[in-house]
Amino acid sequence: MVYRPDMKQSFPLIVFLILIMAGCATVKIENKNVFPFRAGFKIRGTVSNSGIDLDGAMLVSSPESGVLQLYGPGGIAVNTLVMDDGTARLTDTWNREIGSYKVPVKNMAGLLAGLPPSGLRCTKKNEKGETEMKYLWGNIVLDEYLLPVRIIMKGNQHTNAVFSRMARGIDLMITRGSDNFIVNIYPIEGGRWKDAESEMQDVR
After folding, report:
1. Which of 28, 48, 166, 194 has its CA 20 to 30 A from that of 148?
2. CA dihedral in degrees (160, 169, 121, 144; nearest 10)?
3. How far apart are the C-alpha atoms of 174 and 183, rounded to whole Å?
4. φ and ψ of 203, to 5 deg
5. Are 19 and 11 contacting, i.e. CB atoms less than 8 angstroms apart?
């Protein structure tokens, strides 16, 4: 049996979605030379009331897919996180699955390379001149070069992430409930973090 919604009852929702879409704009960002994005990283902080201090590396091959590995003593990969088309899969050293998670949008991986996700979004400028992008799952704030500055994800426990560009790379500070940690990202290849300023000047 095929479910057919009552269009009369659905009409207010359809109108609401049309109004949202009418006030939404797209932000065109070139992704040439962004992928693959390779970087090393270090994580420090508190997760589940336990301190963490780990090194790792990431390879983001597209906005939808990427691999992150956490290293233990001797450089052995203790955990691997594979992101692919909206699913994140965590495995241990022996490739045994620890957990599988759904991410809000399938092209979330591109954020690590400095590329905002696509999809339905409303944009507006705030008082600082930053671009606020509103999605159904949360908000992203971009700076004048359309690089991520802040992410707010809705849910039972709101997740906040703040990107800070430093001379050595990018610092990503994340808080979720009682968990809080900082990820120091050191770009090696690709990404928008280094070339975004010249990229935006070319567009202008």
Report:
1. 48
2. 110
3. 8
4. -65, -40
5. no
pLDDT reading at 186 higher than 90:
yes
Model pLDDT, residue 121? 62
CA dist 190 and 12 (Å) reads 45
Are the C-beta atoms of 34 and 190 separated by less than 8 Å? yes
- Using a CB cutoff of 8 Å and minimum separation of 24, what contacts does 121-128 make? 121/24, 121/25, 121/26, 121/27, 122/20, 122/23, 122/24, 122/25, 123/24, 123/25, 123/27
pTM: 0.80
Cis peptide before 5 (omega within 30 of 0): no
Residue matched to tokens 């990427």: 66
Helices (H), the chain: 7-22, 196-203
Nearest to 15 by CA among 25, 4, 7: 7
* Model confidence pLDDT, tens digit, residues 52-111: 888 999 999 999 999 999 998 888 899 999 999 888 899 999 999 998 988 777 788 899
